[in-house]
Design a protein that fits this description.
Helices cover about 50% and strands about 5% of the residues. It is mainly alpha-helical and about 425 residues long. It binds carboxymethyl coenzyme *A. Carboxymethyl coenzyme *A binds next to loops.
Length: about 425
């Protein structure tokens, strides 16, 4: 049944009725698409804290309940019972696959993992000590120069091929960016091992000896990928959507998403968090850092704490914490000092009135760095790993958006605060 409710807005004595739309879950929205045409005013919402930018049926978050659903399925069930490629299928196509469909999808992704051999030369143009994220932004953008046969966004089959290529090749590109940064030869993907194991092998194998992937580590890696797969309209996803709204090709759009993810308030937080835990060094220095985080004159923030949407707990952090315990236990990393600091910091912050009142809880990045560190990744690889995982989210949202007949170029308005009209002044008269 069509929603007939409206919200009433009065401006200078004139009243306007704005349609209200109800989602399948979450708060109602006031549809303001015709507001400017009808009233001559804009809304103003920097940071988009009260603005929905699109219709989407992929991911739902209830920040108060600490709930994250992909196509209706809770993230903890997916993290525990499913695996990354199955979640990729779910995000891309909307339903869990049956066994034959999953096998076919895994085959397709596995058989797209190699990158064009000429792209190897492209890597060699970067400074050897380049951050792997810098290399990834460049190389993923450059995919549009190598895969012309999947850049026509008006063709649904080309869109699908681009989606598969991006999900398949991102681990290869991230691993190559890492190998390049440490001066080791690139390791080609293999078709006889799974997605997470392949990524570990491409990062840690060397041609001089056999490398056997530890199934415990590949399971932990797969869970990290699963927990980061999508998160509705976050900053990098909105960046991908905005870039794509102009009709740009998918590889360029995902490169834009990677650039946005890099920042420490978003995907860069996992690197920043582990560096912070190491800087704290021992539990007795925690009060000093807590005080700094609370000091309005100090820009320092507790990395891995707080979230724009989650105001109760981050359901991904819960699973990640269990995973961290499991991995460290299985690796026999007893008394890991970083983990000790993390656990104590979490305990202290959760009891501190500042963090309680502002509803600041550990987010997904608080524990992921500890696992990645235990696996053997340097901090510079933490955000690239987030990018590998989030690619399926970006691609699913991009596919959804391009197929939407209501697609419009994204073009926010502004509240102008600059000079009004004035005449040019000749240089000798200034
Ligand atoms: N440490 C100390 N104070 C904090 C923190 C923190 N980590 N996070 C927020 N606050 C305070 C902030 O100073 C503000 O205080 P006041 O109201 O007195 O000015 C209040 O809490 C609200 O903060 P905000 O910046 O307005 O909130 P936001 O929704 O814009 O920011 C955030 C969300 C994630 C950017 C922020 O919490 C933050 O910078 N956290 C640390 C970085 C981090 O861990 N990011 C990873 C997010 S999860 C992974 C991802 O999605 O990429």
């Amino acid at each position: 049944m069509a929603d007939t409710r409206t919200a009433t807005l009065t401006i200078d004595g004139t009243t306007y009725e704005l349609p209200i739309r109800s989602p399948t879950a979450g708060p109602d929205v006031i549809d303001i698409t015709k507001l400017y045409a009808q009233t001559g005013v804009f809304t103003h919402d920097p940071g988009f804290t009260s603005t929905s930018s699109c219709d989407s049926s992929i991911t739902f978050i209830d920040g108060d309940k600490g709930e994250l659903l992909h196509r209706g399925y809770p993230i903890d069930q997916l993290a525990m019972k499913s695996h990354f490629l199955e979640v990729c299928y779910l995000l891309l196509y909307g339903e869990l696959p049956d066994a034959a469909t999953l096998e076919e999808f895994e085959f397709t992704i596995t058989h797209h993992t190699m990158i064009h051999e000429q792209m190897h030369n492209f890597f060699r143009g970067f400074r050897r000590d380049a951050h792997p994220m810098a290399t990834m932004v460049g190389v993923v953008g450059a995919m549009s120069a190598f895969y012309h046969d999947s850049t026509d966004i008006t063709d649904p089959r080309q869109r699908e091929i681009a989606s598969h290529r991006l999900i398949a090749k991102l681990p290869t590109i991230a691993a190559m960016a890492y190998k390049y940064s440490i001066g080791q030869p690139f390791v080609y993907p293999r078709n006889d091992i799974d997605y997470a194991a392949n990524f570990l092998r491409m990062c840690f194998a060397v041609p001089a000896e056999e490398y056997k992937v530890d199934p415990i580590l590949s399971r932990a890696m797969d869970r990290i990928f699963t927990l980061h797969a999508d998160h509705e309209q976050n900053a990098s996803t909105s960046t991908v959507r905005l870039a794509a709204s102009s009709g740009a090709n998918p590889f360029a759009c995902i490169a834009a998403g990677i650039a946005c993810l890099w920042g420490p308030a978003h995907g860069g937080a996992n690197q920043a968090c582990l560096e912070m835990l190491r800087e704290i060094g021992s539990p007795n220095r925690i009060p000093e850092f807590i005080e700094r985080a609370k000091d309005k004159d100090d820009p320092f923030r507790l990395m891995g704490f707080g979230h724009r949407v989650y105001k109760n707990f981050d359901p991904r952090a819960k699973v990640m914490k269990e995973s961290a315990d499991e991995v460290l236990d299985l690796l026999g990393v007893d008394n890991n000092p970083t983990l000790q600091v993390a656990k104590e910091l979490e305990r202290v912050a959760l009891e501190d009135p500042y963090f309680v009142e502002k509803k600041l809880y550990p987010n997904v990045d608080f524990y992921s760095g500890i696992i990645l560190d235990a696996i053997g990744f340097p901090t510079s690889m933490f955000t690239p790993i987030f990018a590998v995982a989030r690619t399926v989210g970006w691609v699913s949202q991009w596919k959804e958006m391009i197929a939407d007949p209501a697609l419009k170029i994204g073009r926010p308005r502004q509240l102008y605060t600059g000079e009004t009209l004035r005449d040019y002044v000749e240089i000798e008269d200034r």
